[in-house]
Design a protein that fits this description.
Oligomer: homodimer
CATH class of chain A: Mainly Alpha
Largest interface: A-B, 58 and 58 residues
Number of strands of chain A: 2
Radius of gyration of chain A: 19 Å
Number of helices of chain A: 15
Distance between the termini of chain A: 22 Å
CATH architecture of chain A: Orthogonal Bundle
Helix content of chain A: 55-70%
Order of helices and strands of chain A: HHHHEEHHHHHHHHHHH
């Protein structure tokens, strides 16, 4: 398997799925005076990104034998949720960031007011989009409802928003942040949406509760390992490779996995988590579920350079 | 019928439904470091309000013979959506309001960052809450999915968020705002959520497409008439009665239905819309659907003083 080529093909597919669900900027009288927010929403999505969450979702769906289109609205939805969280995170009242992935942030282009509305618009539109599953051939209402509930819970106060809140609280604590607090942030701010991605894929493909539970565990490890890599790159990378300023954690006196554990121990633990996640995925092989690309993808997340 | 007493009883019921769905502030380890956002969310909901949208939803449900519990998560959800829109509207980057309903706004109490997250949290939690219908006895998956899709669409860029965007654009135009633009704002910013409320009630009670279409029309008239009353009260009321500063439209040189049409014509048109909505509801009587309280409620919306 040529992993780089395989991932390129898959990301292209995701871009085309995403594109097919983005709202039209022109030609709909219902949005005559709402064009600015739609343009800002689409700008935010089209700035790009690794598309990791839809990728993990699609590959977990495939792992459990899924091969229908019902996964597509959910693939778009999770990327819309991830995007809205970045749009709001970048706001002046939050991280006050002007650049992301080497491009201007949404508020830097469209202003603060429109960026707040664009974030709201993206979150709402994520649910509008996922709900389209109910009109699709091959829809199984019980599975779709379960997938929607997982997505909603993991994105909200019991998931991502909980993690964002804990992250804000941590900023006020500076260097007094405990490892327990930090793990809470990573579990919720980062891992929750990765769990949602993989669990939705599993549920829609018909995985049973035990299998979904195993995926939730594996996705936790993947999410934490992924986040530690972010912390590591903030220390070891550069603006050009990373597409955003490095050293920002140190500058902001931010407690990270790396500042607490040191870069060597952090790297080791991250590797152990990644190995553990792969072991868990491999344990499904005896039940006949196997996806080599997914395994390679998980492995690649801790070796990534941006 | 003692309308004032009847509405009091119903609003009490709504408060208890709302309360039953609000997230716990204590005792859940999943939200150990997320308590602030939950407290801010609950504060925003508990500041109060007319609870008009859940009221219209429950009464439309009753109009079409609905008598189950499946309406309850949707009643909570629509009030959560309404509340989030106010929390974000009040932000410094939006209307910069310190008071609402005589109480401090969410950002004035919890700060801007937490108010952004609380708004996001409320919107997300609205969907989490509505999705609970799928686990309830008496759930009809097709109806619930349809109700969810209506709610999501009317709250988003094709509804409320579209209207908010148009409203922001209007602020920049000042007195150059056209009647067409203004009606677009009211239709989307105000009427859309009232349409969602009543349509969800109709759908869950089993109304057919034609009946849901009639309710959508009636709710449009109700929404516009309701909004014009807001514009009228901003001219004719006072701080004590209204619970918020009056004369703000004139101060902000804001174009309203009243500034374009004058207060007499605005009052007349508003009355005509209200009458038309009631006529439409009455037309359902021949099919055996009748709800005197709902009719009285619609009539009361244009005579309200706050």
């Amino acid at each position: 398997m040529n992993f780089d080529r395989e991932i390129e093909i898959r990301v292209e597919e995701i871009e085309s799925v995403l594109k097919s669900y983005l709202p039209e900027e022109e030609g709909n009288p219902e949005t005559d005076w709402a064009k600015t927010v739609i343009t800002a929403m689409n700008y935010s999505v089209n700035v790009g990104g690794k598309r990791l969450r839809p990728l993990l979702m699609a590959e977990t769906y495939r792992l459990f034998g899924g091969d229908g289109d019902v996964i597509k609205p959910f693939m778009a939805a999770i990327e819309l949720i991830h995007t809205y969280s970045l749009v709001h995170d970048d706001l002046p009242a939050m991280d006050n960031d002007l650049y992301r992935r080497g491009k201007k942030t949404t508020w830097a282009v469209y202003g603060e007011t429109m960026a707040i509305l664009a974030g709201d618009g993206l979150l709402n539109y994520a649910f509008e989009t996922a709900l389209k599953v109910f009109g699709m051939p091959g829809n199984d209402a019980a599975k779709s409802a379960k997938a929607l509930s997982i997505l909603a819970k993991k994105a909200g106060i019991y998931g991502m928003i909980g993690g964002q809140t804990a992250d804000i609280e941590a900023e006020n604590l500076g260097e007094d942040v405990t490892l327990e607090h930090l793990l809470y942030i990573h579990k919720h701010k980062t891992a929750a949406l990765i769990q949602a991605a993989m669990m939705v894929g599993a549920v829609l493909a018909g995985a049973d509760d035990e299998q979904v539970g195993l995926i939730e565990q594996a996705a936790y490890d993947i999410g934490i390992a992924f986040q530690i890599q972010d912390d590591i790159l903030d220390v070891t990378s550069n603006l050009e490779t990373l597409g955003k300023p490095v050293g920002s954690d140190a500058k902001n006196q931010k407690t990270t996995y790396v500042t607490i554990k040191g870069i060597e121990a952090a790297t080791q633990e991250q590797r152990a988590m990644s190995d553990h996640a792969i072991e868990q995925l491999r344990s499904l092989e005896k039940e006949g579920f196997q996806n080599e690309f997914l395994t390679a993808l998980v492995r690649s997340l801790i070796t990534r350079v941006r």
